[in-house]
Amino acid sequence: MRVSWVSRIVSWVAVALVGGVYGVAGTIGHSLAWGPVPVGLIVGAIACAAILIAVRALTHDRGAALAAGLGMLGMLVLISGVGPGGSVVVEDTVAGRIWTYLIAGIVLLVVAWPSFRRPEARSETPASDIPPPPLITSVPSAPTWSPHPGGGRADGHGK
Fold first, then answer.
1. Could you tell me the pTM of the whole model?
2. How does pLDDT run across 87-118, given as a tens digit for each residue?
3. 91 CB contacts (<8 Å, ≥6 apart)?
4. CA pair distance 47, 22, nearest whole angstrom
């Protein structure tokens, strides 16, 4: 099945928007920690990796996974700066740096992961045009044996 370039572009835009939503959610929640456990980093990374893997697996298209990843990274960069009121979403801390490089690494890993699909087999002639092989009904020059109690041949010529 051949996909038109228009539908491919539209799907890339759609997954870029979805990736952007995941990127915003993960970026806002990345700094949540319960004691020493960085819950926000863990949950955000799992969610972003899951959506990228799902896009790649469902579309079989690296371009779609790249578009979703660029949406994530674009929103991360967009909201990482100082806001108009002076607020900072991604602070210059260890968690902020880890989040930035972690998302970039996940996008790179999912997009660069090799495809294990088998290439479609192409034949010159359709399978319906190939005649079936002839049936083998007998083997020439093979003796026929009979399970007679005397052990002789079925054609009556001795043992």
1. 0.69
2. 777 778 888 899 999 999 999 999 999 887 76
3. 31
4. 7
